[in-house]
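debug: dumping io for the single-chain case to check the tokenizer round-trip. Nothing else runs in this session.
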Amino acid sequence: MLMTGFAGLLGILKLLLMGLAAFGLFDAAFRREDAFRAADKQNKVFWLIILGLALVVSYLFPIFSFLPIIGVIASIVYIVDVRPALKQVSGGSGWGRRGSSSDGPYGPYNGGR
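debug: decoded output
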């Protein structure tokens, strides 16, 4: 009974790690290529390959083997380091952001100044 619960916990952990890699992959896919160069964070193709491999490896191999751990580290590096730098360079989320909440139909509202 204890092993069944442990196997279920490992299955949930495996899904979470795959979700982490998938989130990084889809986020990198929707970012602009020039934002990667401007942030000095390799290039878009590099991160798409790394995160795609992390997703495939986390699906194919058991959690406690060597390759999924490397994939998790790569996903965490993208989410913690590269993604915020890309957001800072591109000035937004990269998911079709249109402007700030204070923008009116003719530009930003500056309080009548």
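debug: round-trip ok. The mean pLDDT is 83.
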